[in-house]
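Annex B. Sample input.
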Amino acid sequence: ELFAAAVTAFADAPPGAVVVQCAAGKDRTGLVVALALALAGVPGDVIAADYALSDEAIRQRNDEMLAGVVSEEERARWRLIRHARRLLTG
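Annex B, continued. Sample output.
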């Protein structure tokens, strides 16, 4: 429901740019942007490449956050979710 509301907000926005604010841009925001791009006719491989750019953009911030985590259990969880990898092709 919230993803549909976000994409609808894009469609209803006046002409110009739409800005999406988030912490990392790879999970919920990444999905919202991917949906909007797909609805605009952008090919899946281009969407996947755009998403993968998030990994480069957030790497330093994620490394800094990981360095501050003291629990090894939490560090292991953070390592699993910190990357934005290109998963789609074609």
